[in-house]
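User: I'm putting together notes for a lab meeting next week and I want to include a structural view of one of the chains we've been expressing. I don't have a solved structure, so I'd like a prediction I can at least talk through. The sequence is below, exactly as it appears in our construct file.
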Amino acid sequence: MARKIDFISQLSEQTARDIVKNGEEWKRYLNTASRLYKYPFQEQMLIFAQRPDATACTSIEIWNEKMNCWVNKGAKGIALIDEDAPRPRLKYVFDVSDVHKARRIGRDPYLWQLREEHEEAILKRLEKTYGATNTEMSFADRLLTIAEQITFDTYEEIAEDMAYLTEGSFLEGLDASPYIVNFISSERVSISM
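Assistant: Thanks for the context. Below is the predicted structure for the 193-residue chain, given as C-alpha cells.
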C-alpha cells in the first residue's frame, strides 16, 4: 500500500502538469490561488487539487487558538507537504467552510476582495511603476495591459533562470515564449469582447 505522502506528492506533480497544459485549468487554478495568496505555489496547487472552492485555509491550531473556531465533525483536512519538517510529512489545513465560530468569541477571517472604489488607486500605483495605460479601457483591460508589459519586459531577463529551474522537471525543453505571447493575445481578445 502506497503511503499517503507519496500520493500527495504525485497529486502535486500531476496538478502542475495539468495546469500548465490547459489555459482554462490555469485560470481555475489562479482563481483559487488568488484567495490563498499567502501560501507558496506548491501548497496553492495542492489546495486547488483537493478543494478548488477553498477561500480561507489554515491549520486546526490557528482556527482553535486565534480565531476561536472549531472544525466541524467529519470535515476532511486538505493535505499539504510540510517542507519545514526534518523529513517529508503531511500537514493539514481546513477551509473556513469546514469550521464554525465559538459563541460570542469566534472570529471571521478577513477575506480580501477587490472593491470598485479601490480600482483607481490600484491602477495609479501600478501605472506609477509600470507605465500609463489607456484611460478609456476597462479596469480589466488596463490590468491586462500592465501584465503584458511586465511579461515582455522581464521574459528576456528571466528566460535563462527559467531554463535552469525547469531542468529535470516536466517543463524541461519547453520554449515558453510562444505560449506566453499566445496566452496574452487570447486573453486580450476574450476580455475585450
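A couple of points you could mention at the meeting. Residues 1-112 form one domain. The beta strands are 57-58, 69-71, 78-82, 89-95, 99-101.

User: Perfect, that's what I needed.
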